[in-house]
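call fold(seq) -> C-alpha cells
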Amino acid sequence: MLFLKVRQKFFNSLEGEGISANETLSILLPVIIDQFFLVSFNFMNTAMISSSGAAAISAVNMVGSINIFLVQVFVAIGLGGTVLISRTHGGGDHRQLGRLSGSVLHSTFLVGVLLMILFLVLHQFVLNLLFGQADATVMANAKLYFIGILLSYPAHAIIEGINGSLRGLGFTQNSLKNSLFMNVSYIIGNLFFVIYLQLGIMGLIYSLLISRWSAVLFASYAFYLHRSDFRLKRSNIVTLDFSMIRYILTISLPFAAESFFFNGGKIIMQMMIVSLGTAHIAANAIAGSWIQLAEIIPSALATALVPIVGQSVGRKNINDVKKLTNSFIRLAIISIITVDLLLLPLFPFAMKLFNPPTEMIPIIFRMYLVAFVMHGIAWCYSFVLPSALRAVGDGKFTTTVSLISMWLFRIGAGYLVGIQLGYGLVGIFVVMTIEWGIRGFIFYKRFSSNKWLENLE
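ret:
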C-alpha cells in the first residue's frame, strides 16, 4: 500500500495540465540513461588511463578542462536549438521546424570547425599559458591529447546539433541512442587501444576519433528518419540559411556565454591546482570522476527540464512551468542524496580501481565528504533550477549571476584559501561548493519572485 501511494505521488509530480506523467517520463528516462553513459565514460576514461601513470592522468585532466570549456560552446548552441524548436512545436508553428533544425545543425558544425582550426593553430600557446608549470612529461602528453580532441570537434558538433533538435521535439530516445553509440564505441575502443594494446594517450585519441566520426553517420540516420516530423526538406540541409543561423546564434549566446566564461573560470582553478603538483592534478581528476556519479540523475533532470518547460511556455501554460520545475528539483535532491549514500561504502573499492598515490587518498576522501554535504544543500538549486530559467528566456540573468559568482567568489576566494592560506586542493574544493550555494540561493529567489514572467509578456 505504501509503495502504491509513493508511486502515485511520484507520477502526480510529473504531470501537468498540458503534459502527462508518461510524456514527461518519455523525455526524462532516455536523458538519465544518456547522462549515465556520459559520466560513466568519464569515470572509465580516468580509470583506464590510470594504468599509464599519474602523468597521463594529469595530462588528460588538464586537457579535459579545456575540452569542456570549448565543447560547451556548440553544446550551448544545441541547447538553444532545443529551446527554439520546443517553443515552436508547442506553439503549433510546425512549418518553421525544418528551417530551424537544419540551421541548428549548420550552426553547431560551423562553430565546431572554427574552434578546431583556431586552437590547432594556438594549442601550444594555450597549453604553455595555462599549464606552463606542469612537468615536461605531462605537457608532452597534454599536447598530443589536445590535438586529438580538436580533430573530433566537427563530428562532435554535428552530433550535438542533431541531438539538440531531436530533444526539442521530445525525441530523447533517439538522442539517447546517438550518445550510447558514441560512448559505448569509445569505451570499446579504449579497452582495445589503451588496455589491450597499451597505447596510452594515443589509444585514447584513436578510440575518440573512431567513435565520434562513426557516430555522425549513426546520428544523421536517426535525424533522417524523423525528417517528416521536422518538415525537413533537402534545401534545409544543403543550403546555409544565414539569417536563421544568425538568429539561432543570437538566442544561444546567453547559453554559450555562460558556459564559456563559467568553464573559463574552472580552467583558472585548474591552473591553481597545477601549481600544487602532478599528484594533486591526478587526485582532482579522480575525485571529480567519483563525485560526478551522484550527479547523473540531477544532471539529466536539468537537461530534460529545458524542452519540457519550453513546450509549456509555447502552450502559454505557466502553472506547468512552476509545478514541473519544483517537482524536478525535489526529485533531484532526493536522487543525489540517495546515490551519495550508496557510494560512501564503495569508496575503498573505487580507490583500488583508480590506484592513486597513497598520500592522495585522504585528500580525495575529504573532497568527497564535502561534496556529499553540499550536494543535498545546494547543487540542485545551482544547476537544475537555472535550466528552467533559461527555458523561459531568463538566460541573461542566469549568465550574469553565474559569471559574477564564479569570477569574484570561486576564483578569488579559491586562490586566497587554497594557495595563499595553504589549504590546498581541499580548500579550493570547499570554496567551489560554497559557490554552488550562493548561486543556488540567488536562482531560488529569482524563480520564487516570478520576475522571470516578464520575459513572456
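The longest helix spans residues 54-90.
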